[in-house]
Amino acid sequence: MRHTTTITRLALHAATLAAAFTVLSCDGSEGMLPHSGGAPSEVLVTGQGSECIVSTLEADVPGLPQPEPMFDVKALTDNTLDATARLERNIVVTDIDSLRHSATTVRYERNVYARPQIIIYVSSPSEQALRRDIGRCHIDRLLLRNELAHYAARLTSDTCGTAKEIRKTFGCSMRLPKDVTIRKRGKNFIWLSDNNPLKSGNICIYTSENRDSVMQRNIKGETDNTHMTTVEGSVVDVCQISDRCKVTTRRGLWQMTGDAMGGPFVSRAITLPSGQTIVGEAFVFAPGERKRDKIRQLEASLMTMKSDAEGCKDK
Questions:
Q1: Most buried of the four, 36, 127, 187, 228, by CB within 10 Å?
Q2: Gyration radius of the chain's alpha carbons
Q3: 123 touches 53 (CB < 8 A)
Q4: Tens digits of per-residue pLDDT, 281-303?
Q5: Could you tell me which residues are beta bridge partners of residue 229?
Q6: How far is CA 298 from CA 148, 185, 303, in A?
Q7: Whole-number pLDDT of residue 243
Q8: Largest interatomic CA distance in the chain
Q9: If we measure between CA atoms, which residue out of 152, 95, 86 comes closest to residue 117?
Q10: CA angle, corner 16, sides to 312 and 85, nearest 5?
Q11: By the 8 A CB rule, do 273 and 244 touch?
Q12: d(Cα 125, Cα 131) in Å, to the nearest integer?
């Protein structure tokens, strides 16, 4: 499936991450493709001017307590895609040619040689033009969307027992990681965890925009005097309007008051036409460990959260 766009249109298109969870197909031949390879958040980059792409994709992930690159990049030195390279899940191909390209453009194809797969083609008249325009190409958003879709395909059905309880309590459907179980129930609050002692993944669902008050009541430390709170100045918001609903994604850091515990969190709040808010939040506790892939796995689950409320179809 081919998509072509200029960098100005791509900024709006790539921002709608939830669209990745729609099944994509061209014809029956896709079912015959081999499974793609590549480690989580790994990208293969090839072509002229690829140095600019590499430096962009290796920038630090926002909202993590320690530096981690947005993607682990493998750059091909011979600028060709052989039979093995074509099976990578994420591929970026650059082409610098002033005779064939008058402006920087981006197009992408899905499931060309394997599935799931995205191949992004970046064309520009010069390396100087590419460096100037790269910030508006939003290649990182396209790749992140593909990674979240890859994780989402491995989630449980939204009709599993835990998902049914979430739907009964909050009126929303949600697909979940296979290894999470309910750790705590509270008033308008459910906390799920995989209980991993080394790299703990957690999801909370609640009905308030005031994160700190919810966490103070429901997630305590070793004593009642310690509780989870938000690290001041760490939160970044992104808001979207979808069929009369406001959807707000927040990224930031959490910590336990009076304790050294902390880590990253991401939340997705859906504000319904009635004014009610449903929040799905993921947080990770993994001291001394990399956290990027774990938080993305959980974020994929948040992206599947949809309200059952009439007149509010989350996209």
A1: 228
A2: 21
A3: no
A4: 999 999 999 999 999 999 999 99
A5: 255
A6: 9, 19, 9
A7: 66
A8: 68
A9: 86
A10: 140
A11: yes
A12: 11
Q: How far is CA 114 from the centre of its chain?
A: 21
**What's the CA gap between 87 and 46, in Å, rounded?**
14
Cis preceding-peptide flag for 116 (omega within 30 of 0): yes
Which residues have a Cβ under 8 Å from the Cβ of 52 and sit 6 or more positions away? 94, 127, 130, 131, 134
pLDDT category at 215 given cuts 50, 70, 90 is: very high
Task: Identify residue 79 by its one-letter amino acid code.
Answer: N
Instruction: Kindly report, residue by residue over 18-64, the tens digit of the pLDDT.
Output: 333 333 333 345 568 999 999 999 999 999 888 999 999 999 998 89
Beta strands in 180-220 (DSSP E): 181-186, 189-193, 200-206
The model carries a pTM of 0.85
For residue 88, the surrounding DSSP H or E stretch is: none
152: nearest Cα among 196, 203, 116, 109: 116
pLDDT in tens, 170-184: 999 999 999 999 999
Cα dihedral 216→304→71→232 (10° resolution):
-20
Q: How far apart are the C-alpha atoms of 63 and 294, rounded to whole Å?
A: 13
Question: For residue 117, which of 153, 152, 146, 79 has the smallest C-alpha distance?
Answer: 146
**Nearest to residue 179, comparing CAs of 166, 192, 194, 200?**
194
Q: Using CA atoms, how far apart are residues 294 and 233, in angstroms rounded to an integer?
A: 23
Using the structure block, give the residue that is written with the tokens 């939160």: 235
The 10 Å CB-count burial string (b at 16+, else e) for 245-275 is bebbbbbbbbbbeeeeebbbbbbbbbbbeee
Instruction: Kindly state the helix (H) or strand (E) to which residue 115 belongs, with its residue range.
Output: none
Tell me which DSSP letter residue 77 carries: S
Q: Closest Cα to residue 193, out of 263, 282, 253? A: 282
Do 262 and 255 meet the contact criterion of CB atoms below 8 Å apart?
yes
